[in-house]
Amino acid sequence: MLPRWIWGLACIGGVILYLLMNQISRVRYDKLIASMGIESKTARWLSAPLLWLEKAQPALDTHPALASLRQAVMQIYGPAHSHTMYRAVMAEMALYVYAALLAALLMPAVTDGSFTNMMGGLLLGIILPLARARDVINKAESKRQELQLELPELLSKLTLLVQAGETAQKAMALCIERKRDQSEHPLYAELNRMMKDMQNGYSFPQAMEQFAKRCAIQEVSMFVTTLLINQRRGGTTFVLAMEDLGRQLWEKRKSVARKRGEEASTKLVFPMMLMFLVVLAVVGAPALLMMK
Fold first, then answer.
1. Most exposed of 46, 51, 90, 249 (fewest Cβ within 10 Å)?
2. CB neighbours of 142 closer than 8 A, spacing ≥ 6?
3. What is each CA distance from 193 to 21, 55, 160, 186, 202, in whole angstroms?
4. What average pLDDT does range 144-173 have in this prediction?
C-alpha cells in the first residue's frame, strides 16, 4: 500500500507525459491522420499511439493473431485504405490501453491507496481493446451480410434488363440509377464509386475488378467474374450464366436471413428472462405476503 498522493502524482504525470508526446508527434502524423477520415474527437489523440507503434507496426501487419482484424478492416475500407485504417484501429486500441493504465493509477488515489484497486483499471486495459477489435469485426460482418442480401436482387434486375436488349454496362448503370435513394447501402455505395471510376477513365472491366477488390467477399468476386466472362458472348449464354449464379446467390441470401433470424431470437432471450422475473415478482409477491 502506498500513500494516495503518490498514486495521484503518478496519474497526473502520466497525463502530462501523454499530452507532451501527443503534441510533439502531431506535426509528424497530421497528414496521416487527415487521410484516415475518422472523427476529430478520436483523431486528435492518435499521434502519440502512432509514434509508439511505429517500430512495432511491421510485426502487427503480419502477426497471425490479428489476421481476422486485418481482414475485417480490408472488407470495410477496401484494399487501398486498409493499411492506413488498420494503423488507426491499432492506435485507438493502444490509446484505450494507456487510458486504462491511467485509470488504474487513479483508482488507488481516490480510494485507500492499495494495489488491489488497480485491478479495475488493468481489467479495462484488456476489455476496451478487445471490444474495439470486436466492433470492427462486427461491422465487417454486417457489411458482408448486407452485400449478400442485396446482390441477388441486383443480379435478377440485371439479367432481366439484358434479356430486354440492354448491354451489361448499360443495364448496370440503370440498376444503380434506380437505387439512387439507397446510396448509403454498402453495395450501391461501392457501385457508385465504380461508376465514378469509369467516368475518370477506367474501362468497365477494370472498374468492376476494383469493385470486387473493395468488397472483398466471395459472392461479389463470383458475380464480377461471371459478368466479365460472359458479357461479350451475350444472348442465351450470358442469361444462363447469370441465372445459374442467381440461384446460388439466392440460396446464400436465405442462409444469411436464417442466421439473422437466429441471432435476433437469441438476443430476445435476456429481455424475456427479465419479463419473466418481473411477472413472477408481481404474481408471487402477494402470495408471499399472504403467507406471512
1. 51
2. none
3. 38, 35, 23, 11, 12
4. 85
Residue linked to cell 480490408: 74
Q: Residue 269 above 80 pLDDT? A: no
| 79 φ/ψ angles, rounded to the nearest 5 degrees | -65, -30
40 contacts 135 by C-beta, under 8 angstroms: no
- In tens, the pLDDT along 27-39 reads 888 888 777 766 5
- Among 239, 247, 248, 237, residue whose Cα is nearest residue 161: 239
Q: Strands, E, within 32-124: which ranges?
A: none
Which grid cell sits at 211? 469493385
pTM of the model: 0.79
Please identify which residue in the block is written with the cell numbers 475518370. Answer: 200
Given a contact cutoff of 8 angstroms between Cβ atoms, the answer to whether 180 and 257 are in contact is: no
The count of residues in the chain is 292
Taking alpha carbons only, the member of 210, 206, 230 closest to residue 158 is 230
91 neighbors 50 (Cβ within 8 angstroms): yes
Angle of CA points 186, 29, 121, to nearest 5°: 80
**CA 264-270-274 angle, 5° bins:** 135
Please give the grid coordinates belonging to residue 130.
Answer: 478487445
pLDDT in tens, 177-229: 888 887 788 888 888 888 888 888 888 888 888 888 888 888 888 888 888 88
43 alpha carbon, distance to own chain's centre: 17
